[in-house]
Amino acid sequence: MKILIIDDSKSSRMLLENFLFNFGYKNVHLTSSFKEARAFLEENDDVDLILMDILMPVIDGIEATRILKADSKFVNIPIISVSASDTIDSLDKAFEAGAIDYINKPINKVELRARVRSVLRLKQERDTRIKREKELEELTKKYKLMSGIDGLTGIPNRRSFDEQLAEEWSRANREKWAISLLMIDIDFFKKYNDYYGHVQGDNCLKEVSRIINTKLKRPGDMLARYGGEEFVIILPNTDSKGAALMGENIRAAVESMQLEHKKSGVSDYITVSIGAASGIPTSNLTPQDLIKAADKALYCAKEDSRNCVKVDNTINIIKAS
Ligand code: GH3
Ligand code: MG
Ligand code: MG
Question: Is 135 an annotated catalytic residue?
Fold first, then answer.
Protein backbone atom coordinates (compact mmCIF):
# COMPACT_ATOMS: atom_id res chain seq x y z
CA MET A 1 0.00 0.00 0.00
CA LYS A 2 1.55 3.28 -1.13
CA ILE A 3 0.73 6.33 0.97
CA LEU A 4 1.59 9.95 0.14
CA ILE A 5 1.81 12.62 2.83
CA ILE A 6 1.49 16.28 1.86
CA ASP A 7 2.32 18.64 4.73
CA ASP A 8 4.41 21.81 4.86
CA SER A 9 5.50 21.17 8.46
CA LYS A 10 8.45 18.85 8.73
CA SER A 11 7.63 17.69 12.24
CA SER A 12 4.07 16.82 11.19
CA ARG A 13 5.30 14.81 8.23
CA MET A 14 7.78 12.89 10.36
CA LEU A 15 5.21 12.20 13.04
CA LEU A 16 2.68 10.84 10.53
CA GLU A 17 5.32 8.74 8.86
CA ASN A 18 6.44 7.37 12.17
CA PHE A 19 2.91 6.40 13.18
CA LEU A 20 2.22 4.79 9.84
CA PHE A 21 5.49 2.90 10.01
CA ASN A 22 4.49 1.53 13.39
CA PHE A 23 1.14 0.40 11.99
CA GLY A 24 3.03 -1.59 9.36
CA TYR A 25 2.83 0.77 6.39
CA LYS A 26 6.39 0.91 5.06
CA ASN A 27 5.71 2.46 1.68
CA VAL A 28 5.14 6.07 2.76
CA HIS A 29 6.31 9.12 0.81
CA LEU A 30 6.72 12.64 2.15
CA THR A 31 6.18 15.89 0.26
CA SER A 32 6.08 19.44 1.60
CA SER A 33 3.87 21.18 -0.95
CA PHE A 34 1.19 20.45 -3.49
CA LYS A 35 3.65 21.23 -6.27
CA GLU A 36 6.04 18.58 -5.05
CA ALA A 37 3.20 16.12 -4.44
CA ARG A 38 1.84 16.60 -7.91
CA ALA A 39 5.22 15.85 -9.48
CA PHE A 40 5.35 12.68 -7.38
CA LEU A 41 1.84 11.65 -8.45
CA GLU A 42 2.69 12.17 -12.12
CA GLU A 43 5.55 9.70 -11.66
CA ASN A 44 3.66 7.22 -9.46
CA ASP A 45 0.30 5.98 -10.68
CA ASP A 46 -0.09 3.48 -7.85
CA VAL A 47 -0.67 5.72 -4.84
CA ASP A 48 -3.42 4.22 -2.64
CA LEU A 49 -3.98 7.04 -0.18
CA ILE A 50 -3.12 10.71 0.34
CA LEU A 51 -2.91 12.36 3.74
CA MET A 52 -3.41 16.04 2.98
CA ASP A 53 -2.63 18.88 5.38
CA ILE A 54 -5.22 21.63 5.07
CA LEU A 55 -3.19 24.65 6.14
CA MET A 56 -0.35 25.10 3.65
CA PRO A 57 1.08 28.18 1.95
CA VAL A 58 0.53 28.91 -1.78
CA ILE A 59 -1.98 26.11 -2.48
CA ASP A 60 -3.78 24.93 0.62
CA GLY A 61 -5.11 21.40 1.18
CA ILE A 62 -8.68 22.24 0.20
CA GLU A 63 -7.64 23.70 -3.12
CA ALA A 64 -5.20 20.86 -3.72
CA THR A 65 -7.96 18.31 -3.06
CA ARG A 66 -10.24 20.09 -5.48
CA ILE A 67 -7.58 20.07 -8.20
CA LEU A 68 -6.83 16.37 -7.78
CA LYS A 69 -10.50 15.40 -7.75
CA ALA A 70 -11.08 17.31 -10.98
CA ASP A 71 -8.37 15.31 -12.73
CA SER A 72 -9.38 11.91 -14.09
CA LYS A 73 -5.87 10.60 -13.43
CA PHE A 74 -6.16 11.21 -9.69
CA VAL A 75 -9.88 11.19 -9.00
CA ASN A 76 -9.81 7.65 -7.61
CA ILE A 77 -7.11 8.20 -5.01
CA PRO A 78 -8.79 8.66 -1.62
CA ILE A 79 -7.74 11.74 0.33
CA ILE A 80 -7.86 12.11 4.11
CA SER A 81 -7.71 15.76 5.23
CA VAL A 82 -5.44 16.54 8.16
CA SER A 83 -5.91 19.83 9.98
CA ALA A 84 -5.13 21.75 13.10
CA SER A 85 -8.37 23.67 12.91
CA ASP A 86 -11.35 21.50 13.71
CA THR A 87 -13.93 24.09 12.81
CA ILE A 88 -17.04 22.78 11.11
CA ASP A 89 -16.30 25.16 8.28
CA SER A 90 -13.00 23.65 7.19
CA LEU A 91 -14.38 20.14 7.65
CA ASP A 92 -17.26 21.05 5.37
CA LYS A 93 -14.93 22.51 2.80
CA ALA A 94 -12.69 19.45 2.84
CA PHE A 95 -15.60 17.10 2.16
CA GLU A 96 -16.98 19.42 -0.46
CA ALA A 97 -13.62 19.41 -2.21
CA GLY A 98 -13.74 15.62 -2.33
CA ALA A 99 -11.92 14.35 0.76
CA ILE A 100 -13.18 10.95 1.92
CA ASP A 101 -12.34 11.44 5.60
CA TYR A 102 -10.93 13.91 8.08
CA ILE A 103 -8.52 13.81 10.97
CA ASN A 104 -7.49 16.50 13.48
CA LYS A 105 -4.10 17.60 14.74
CA PRO A 106 -2.69 16.80 17.19
CA ILE A 107 -2.91 13.34 15.67
CA ASN A 108 -4.53 10.69 17.79
CA LYS A 109 -2.75 7.44 17.02
CA VAL A 110 -5.76 5.15 17.41
CA GLU A 111 -7.96 7.41 15.33
CA LEU A 112 -5.35 7.65 12.59
CA ARG A 113 -4.98 3.89 12.38
CA ALA A 114 -8.73 3.29 12.23
CA ARG A 115 -9.27 5.86 9.48
CA VAL A 116 -6.32 4.86 7.34
CA ARG A 117 -7.30 1.22 7.62
CA SER A 118 -10.91 1.71 6.63
CA VAL A 119 -10.10 4.00 3.72
CA LEU A 120 -7.47 1.60 2.39
CA ARG A 121 -9.88 -1.30 2.69
CA LEU A 122 -12.46 0.60 0.65
CA LYS A 123 -9.85 1.46 -1.94
CA GLN A 124 -8.78 -2.16 -2.22
CA GLU A 125 -12.34 -3.41 -2.63
CA ARG A 126 -12.93 -0.83 -5.31
CA ASP A 127 -9.74 -1.73 -7.18
CA THR A 128 -10.64 -5.41 -7.09
CA ARG A 129 -14.12 -4.68 -8.40
CA ILE A 130 -12.82 -2.54 -11.26
CA LYS A 131 -10.27 -5.20 -12.16
CA ARG A 132 -12.96 -7.88 -12.24
CA GLU A 133 -15.23 -5.74 -14.38
CA LYS A 134 -12.41 -5.16 -16.86
CA GLU A 135 -11.64 -8.86 -17.03
CA LEU A 136 -15.29 -9.63 -17.64
CA GLU A 137 -15.50 -7.04 -20.40
CA GLU A 138 -12.44 -8.48 -22.11
CA LEU A 139 -13.87 -11.96 -21.83
CA THR A 140 -17.18 -10.90 -23.35
CA LYS A 141 -15.39 -9.24 -26.25
CA LYS A 142 -13.23 -12.29 -26.82
CA TYR A 143 -16.21 -14.58 -26.64
CA LYS A 144 -18.14 -12.56 -29.20
CA LEU A 145 -15.18 -12.49 -31.55
CA MET A 146 -14.70 -16.22 -31.13
CA SER A 147 -18.33 -16.93 -31.76
CA GLY A 148 -18.16 -14.85 -34.93
CA ILE A 149 -20.86 -12.41 -33.88
CA ASP A 150 -20.65 -8.65 -34.33
CA GLY A 151 -20.92 -7.02 -30.91
CA LEU A 152 -23.10 -4.10 -31.97
CA THR A 153 -25.69 -5.64 -34.27
CA GLY A 154 -25.68 -9.26 -33.13
CA ILE A 155 -25.33 -10.53 -36.70
CA PRO A 156 -22.32 -12.51 -38.02
CA ASN A 157 -19.10 -10.53 -38.33
CA ARG A 158 -16.58 -10.25 -41.12
CA ARG A 159 -14.75 -13.40 -40.10
CA SER A 160 -17.92 -15.50 -40.15
CA PHE A 161 -18.72 -14.03 -43.52
CA ASP A 162 -15.33 -14.98 -44.97
CA GLU A 163 -15.71 -18.54 -43.71
CA GLN A 164 -19.27 -18.90 -44.94
CA LEU A 165 -18.48 -17.44 -48.35
CA ALA A 166 -15.61 -19.89 -48.85
CA GLU A 167 -17.95 -22.74 -47.97
CA GLU A 168 -20.82 -21.59 -50.16
CA TRP A 169 -18.40 -20.90 -52.97
CA SER A 170 -17.17 -24.53 -52.95
CA ARG A 171 -20.71 -25.80 -52.78
CA ALA A 172 -21.71 -23.65 -55.77
CA ASN A 173 -18.65 -24.94 -57.60
CA ARG A 174 -19.67 -28.54 -56.91
CA GLU A 175 -23.31 -28.04 -57.76
CA LYS A 176 -22.58 -25.75 -60.72
CA TRP A 177 -25.10 -23.22 -59.60
CA ALA A 178 -24.89 -19.45 -59.33
CA ILE A 179 -24.00 -17.67 -56.13
CA SER A 180 -24.76 -13.99 -55.48
CA LEU A 181 -23.43 -11.35 -53.18
CA LEU A 182 -25.06 -8.11 -52.11
CA MET A 183 -22.93 -5.26 -50.75
CA ILE A 184 -25.03 -2.77 -48.84
CA ASP A 185 -23.79 0.65 -47.75
CA ILE A 186 -25.76 3.30 -45.89
CA ASP A 187 -25.99 6.60 -47.76
CA PHE A 188 -24.42 9.69 -46.22
CA PHE A 189 -23.85 7.92 -42.96
CA LYS A 190 -20.94 10.10 -41.97
CA LYS A 191 -23.27 13.07 -42.08
CA TYR A 192 -25.82 11.12 -40.02
CA ASN A 193 -23.20 10.48 -37.33
CA ASP A 194 -22.01 14.05 -37.37
CA TYR A 195 -25.54 15.38 -36.98
CA TYR A 196 -27.24 12.83 -34.71
CA GLY A 197 -24.20 11.57 -32.78
CA HIS A 198 -22.49 8.21 -32.54
CA VAL A 199 -24.97 6.59 -30.16
CA GLN A 200 -27.84 7.20 -32.52
CA GLY A 201 -25.57 6.16 -35.36
CA ASP A 202 -25.08 2.83 -33.64
CA ASN A 203 -28.83 2.47 -33.09
CA CYS A 204 -29.38 3.15 -36.75
CA LEU A 205 -26.96 0.35 -37.67
CA LYS A 206 -28.91 -2.01 -35.43
CA GLU A 207 -32.23 -1.02 -36.99
CA VAL A 208 -30.93 -1.37 -40.53
CA SER A 209 -29.45 -4.81 -39.85
CA ARG A 210 -32.68 -5.90 -38.19
CA ILE A 211 -34.90 -4.89 -41.10
CA ILE A 212 -32.55 -6.44 -43.66
CA ASN A 213 -32.63 -9.73 -41.77
CA THR A 214 -36.41 -9.88 -42.00
CA LYS A 215 -36.07 -9.93 -45.81
CA LEU A 216 -33.95 -13.08 -45.91
CA LYS A 217 -36.19 -16.08 -46.40
CA ARG A 218 -33.98 -19.01 -47.36
CA PRO A 219 -32.04 -20.83 -44.67
CA GLY A 220 -28.78 -20.58 -46.69
CA ASP A 221 -28.95 -16.79 -47.01
CA MET A 222 -26.58 -14.98 -44.70
CA LEU A 223 -26.35 -11.35 -43.63
CA ALA A 224 -23.10 -10.14 -42.06
CA ARG A 225 -21.56 -6.86 -40.99
CA TYR A 226 -18.76 -6.29 -43.45
CA GLY A 227 -17.32 -3.12 -41.95
CA GLY A 228 -18.47 0.10 -40.25
CA GLU A 229 -21.72 0.88 -42.08
CA GLU A 230 -21.44 -1.84 -44.70
CA PHE A 231 -23.37 -5.06 -44.75
CA VAL A 232 -23.04 -8.03 -47.02
CA ILE A 233 -25.41 -10.84 -47.95
CA ILE A 234 -24.54 -14.24 -49.38
CA LEU A 235 -27.27 -15.70 -51.55
CA PRO A 236 -26.47 -19.32 -52.49
CA ASN A 237 -28.11 -20.82 -55.57
CA THR A 238 -29.28 -17.40 -56.73
CA ASP A 239 -28.63 -15.81 -60.12
CA SER A 240 -28.33 -12.13 -60.97
CA LYS A 241 -32.07 -11.76 -61.51
CA GLY A 242 -32.79 -13.10 -58.05
CA ALA A 243 -30.04 -10.94 -56.56
CA ALA A 244 -31.49 -7.81 -58.19
CA LEU A 245 -34.91 -8.68 -56.82
CA MET A 246 -33.59 -9.26 -53.30
CA GLY A 247 -31.57 -6.05 -53.51
CA GLU A 248 -34.59 -4.01 -54.49
CA ASN A 249 -36.66 -5.61 -51.70
CA ILE A 250 -34.05 -4.65 -49.15
CA ARG A 251 -33.52 -1.15 -50.50
CA ALA A 252 -37.28 -0.49 -50.35
CA ALA A 253 -37.59 -1.99 -46.86
CA VAL A 254 -34.89 0.28 -45.45
CA GLU A 255 -36.39 3.35 -47.06
CA SER A 256 -39.89 2.54 -45.80
CA MET A 257 -38.67 2.37 -42.19
CA GLN A 258 -38.55 6.14 -42.49
CA LEU A 259 -35.69 6.72 -40.09
CA GLU A 260 -35.23 10.49 -40.23
CA HIS A 261 -32.00 11.66 -41.86
CA LYS A 262 -32.08 15.43 -42.27
CA LYS A 263 -28.59 15.60 -43.73
CA SER A 264 -28.99 12.97 -46.44
CA GLY A 265 -28.47 14.25 -49.97
CA VAL A 266 -31.00 11.84 -51.47
CA SER A 267 -33.94 11.50 -49.11
CA ASP A 268 -35.48 12.66 -45.85
CA TYR A 269 -34.83 9.18 -44.48
CA ILE A 270 -32.05 6.65 -44.09
CA THR A 271 -31.42 4.85 -47.38
CA VAL A 272 -28.93 2.31 -48.68
CA SER A 273 -27.06 1.76 -51.92
CA ILE A 274 -26.62 -1.84 -53.01
CA GLY A 275 -24.19 -3.52 -55.35
CA ALA A 276 -24.95 -7.07 -56.45
CA ALA A 277 -22.72 -9.60 -58.17
CA SER A 278 -23.51 -13.08 -59.38
CA GLY A 279 -21.63 -15.86 -61.02
CA ILE A 280 -21.04 -19.57 -61.33
CA PRO A 281 -17.68 -20.47 -59.81
CA THR A 282 -15.02 -21.78 -62.16
CA SER A 283 -11.49 -22.92 -61.42
CA ASN A 284 -9.98 -19.56 -62.39
CA LEU A 285 -12.25 -17.59 -60.06
CA THR A 286 -12.10 -17.01 -56.33
CA PRO A 287 -14.62 -15.65 -53.82
CA GLN A 288 -12.51 -12.49 -53.91
CA ASP A 289 -13.61 -11.91 -57.51
CA LEU A 290 -17.23 -11.99 -56.42
CA ILE A 291 -16.54 -9.49 -53.64
CA LYS A 292 -14.69 -7.20 -56.04
CA ALA A 293 -17.54 -7.30 -58.55
CA ALA A 294 -20.14 -6.51 -55.87
CA ASP A 295 -17.94 -3.68 -54.66
CA LYS A 296 -17.72 -2.31 -58.18
CA ALA A 297 -21.50 -2.44 -58.54
CA LEU A 298 -21.88 -0.68 -55.21
CA TYR A 299 -19.55 2.03 -56.44
CA CYS A 300 -21.75 2.45 -59.52
CA ALA A 301 -24.83 2.77 -57.31
CA LYS A 302 -23.09 5.50 -55.31
CA GLU A 303 -21.99 7.25 -58.49
CA ASP A 304 -25.44 7.06 -60.00
CA SER A 305 -28.06 8.32 -57.55
CA ARG A 306 -27.55 6.34 -54.32
CA ASN A 307 -30.66 4.68 -52.80
CA CYS A 308 -30.57 2.24 -55.72
CA VAL A 309 -29.40 -1.24 -56.71
CA LYS A 310 -26.79 -2.01 -59.38
CA VAL A 311 -25.93 -5.47 -60.61
CA ASP A 312 -22.64 -6.68 -61.98
CA ASN A 313 -22.91 -10.06 -63.69
CA THR A 314 -19.68 -9.86 -65.57
CA ILE A 315 -17.33 -11.83 -63.35
CA ASN A 316 -17.37 -14.95 -65.52
CA ILE A 317 -16.98 -12.89 -68.69
CA ILE A 318 -14.04 -10.83 -67.36
CA LYS A 319 -12.10 -13.86 -66.26
CA ALA A 320 -12.85 -15.82 -69.43
CA SER A 321 -11.28 -13.22 -71.68
P1 GH3 B 1 -21.77 7.42 -48.87
O2 GH3 B 1 -23.18 7.80 -49.13
O3 GH3 B 1 -20.87 7.73 -50.01
O4 GH3 B 1 -21.65 5.99 -48.45
O5 GH3 B 1 -21.28 8.35 -47.67
P6 GH3 B 1 -20.96 7.88 -46.19
O7 GH3 B 1 -20.83 9.10 -45.37
O8 GH3 B 1 -21.98 6.91 -45.74
O9 GH3 B 1 -19.62 7.09 -46.37
P10 GH3 B 1 -18.24 7.15 -45.63
O11 GH3 B 1 -17.61 5.82 -45.93
O12 GH3 B 1 -17.49 8.38 -46.03
O13 GH3 B 1 -18.55 7.26 -44.09
C14 GH3 B 1 -18.90 6.15 -43.35
C15 GH3 B 1 -19.18 6.64 -41.97
O16 GH3 B 1 -19.82 5.63 -41.19
C17 GH3 B 1 -17.96 6.99 -41.17
C18 GH3 B 1 -18.41 6.87 -39.76
O19 GH3 B 1 -18.87 8.14 -39.33
C20 GH3 B 1 -19.61 5.92 -39.84
N21 GH3 B 1 -19.41 4.67 -39.12
C22 GH3 B 1 -18.64 3.63 -39.48
N23 GH3 B 1 -18.72 2.65 -38.55
C24 GH3 B 1 -19.55 3.07 -37.57
C25 GH3 B 1 -20.04 2.50 -36.34
O26 GH3 B 1 -19.73 1.38 -35.95
N27 GH3 B 1 -20.89 3.25 -35.60
C28 GH3 B 1 -21.27 4.48 -36.02
N29 GH3 B 1 -22.12 5.16 -35.24
N30 GH3 B 1 -20.83 5.03 -37.15
C31 GH3 B 1 -19.99 4.35 -37.93
MG1 MG C 1 -21.96 5.03 -46.61
MG1 MG D 1 -18.78 3.07 -46.44
Answer: no
